[in-house]
């Protein structure tokens, strides 16, 4: 597991119900978000798969992400 993968998983472990992980693309909008209850998997070192509780799945190419940060619910920018 890479340092980035370990960091993302640690960020998720430290979340509470009022925060989420935002994967920010080049246009500075969140491409996707991960909540504490989501399941994160890393099929390779440049891809993260987010599986939501409702069964929906999002695949993110980390090459297209310029920032990964924790944001508060209701916060956009």
Overall description:
The protein is mainly beta. The chain contains one helix and six strands, in the order αββββββ. Strands 2-1-6 form a three-stranded antiparallel β-sheet, covered by helices on one side. A three-stranded antiparallel β-sheet has the order 3-4-5, with no helix packed on it. A hairpin with a 2-residue loop joins strand 3 and strand 4. 9% of the residues are buried.
List the helices and strands and how they pair.
Blueprint: H1 3-13, E1 19-25, E2 30-34, E3 39-44, E4 47-51, E5 57-61, E6 65-72
Antiparallel strand pairs: 1-2, 1-6, 3-4, 4-5
Percentage beta strand: over 45%
What are the segments in which pLDDT stays under 50 over at least 5 consecutive residues? none
Query: Order of strands side by side in the largest beta sheet?
Result: 2-1-6
Largest sheet: 3 strands, antiparallel
Radius of gyration: 12 Å
Summarize the amount of helix as a percent range. Answer: 10-25%
SSE-based structural type: mainly beta
Could you give the count of β-strands? Answer: 6
Mean pLDDT score: 92
User: Strand-and-helix sequence, N→C?
Assistant: HEEEEEE
Shape: globular
Gap from first CA to last CA: 30 Å
How many H/I helical runs? 1
Key terms:
single chain, 77 residues, mainly beta, 3-stranded antiparallel sheet, globular
Short characterization:
This protein is mostly beta strands and 77 residues long.
């Amino acid at each position: 597991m890479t340092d980035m993968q370990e960091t993302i998983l640690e960020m998720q472990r430290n979340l509470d119900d009022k925060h989420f992980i935002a994967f920010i693309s080049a246009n500075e909008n969140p491409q996707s978000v991960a909540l504490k209850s989501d399941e994160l998997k890393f099929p390779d070192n440049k891809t993260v798969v987010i599986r939501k509780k409702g069964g929906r799945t999002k695949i993110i190419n980390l090459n297209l992400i310029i920032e990964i940060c924790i944001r508060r619910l209701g916060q956009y920018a």
